[in-house]
């Protein structure tokens, strides 16, 4: 597989190389925000408030479903009056009990890890909320337990339906008075994603298309992606995951200030070295910093110093700034751009971004 940037402006290739429709799926993100919000309201998620505020919220999910929990925690922020924890495994922590809310999220409604946790939550007497496909095993568990369930119309890969899965969690948090989030907020987020879809549309040429430009930055590099806040770090993790799933491309993610205590040392390592006499450029480190408007002052100092350090060592740098007032808007801005970039990176390498054959094969081996 070779990187051919001219593919990104070849409309025929972008169409034929994406038979699973990942680009149209990313473009549907705004509609997903609106649908996720509407379905949560119709499912009467506000009933969660009838039992009072829980001691803690535990979100169970894998892949894109798990990122929905990270989005919830970042939106509520450090001022949350309770812990919000995302669990990506088969087992609930031992401290989770009857006074806690467990939100089980699964695009298919049949993710085995999430089903295991939903079952444990019911046995422990936790309040349960489910988000996933209608008619699924997860819905059956929630219905039998008398729990709130938000059915969402997942089409294609769950990772392309992030906002369908995440929006109901924000509605739940608003019902519990953890964060102000009304219809106007979700509409602003949807409009932001519509604007991103217009700027990153396939017919927009690489030199003005931010999604294609970021893909070109990432190509033939080893991306080290840092977020400068909790919200930006969720977007950094999402980008790393999308690079793996869509482009089959490895990446490292981190969060400032923590990344300055270990990952920054890679600036002096073998992946940061460049041989100017080599016939072909090798894959070298690239620092990608996702910058937020809400940064701790010391994090701002660290971010600026880290960028100077990278540039002084000739490590290529890409900076991306979040846009918007509410943290949900800012995350949507960065996540939308990253989703496009990962898809364009796949297409630039001639890779179909939709299938994940290694994951499918792994699941088949486990089930034997």
**Total domain count:** 2
* Cα separation of the termini: 32 Å
| Helical percentage | 40-55%
Shape: globular
Mean pLDDT: 95
SSE series: HHHEHEEHEHEHHHEHEEHEHH
The assembly state of the depicted protein chains is single chain
What is the number of beta strands?
Answer: 9
Number of helices: 13
Strand order of the largest sheet: 2-1-3-4-5
Q: Biggest sheet: strands, sense, closure? A: 5 strands, parallel
Task: Report the uncertain regions.
Answer: none
The CATH architecture designation of the largest domain is: 3-Layer(aba) Sandwich
Structural class comes to alpha/beta
CATH topology of the largest domain: Rossmann fold
What does this structure look like?
This protein has 368 residues and is of the alpha/beta class. It is built from 13 helices and nine strands. It has helices spanning 11-16, 22-27, 29-42, 64-76, 112-123, 137-144, 162-175, 183-199, 210-218, 230-247, 297-312, 327-348, 357-367; strands at 57-60, 84-87, 101-106, 127-132, 148-151, 221-227, 252-255, 284-291, 317-321. The strands form two sheets. A five-stranded parallel beta sheet has the order 2-1-3-4-5, sandwiched between helices. The chain has a four-stranded parallel beta sheet with strand order 7-6-8-9, sandwiched between helices. α4 (64-76) links the parallel β1 (57-60) and β2. α4 packs antiparallel against α10 and α10 (230-247) packs parallel to α12.
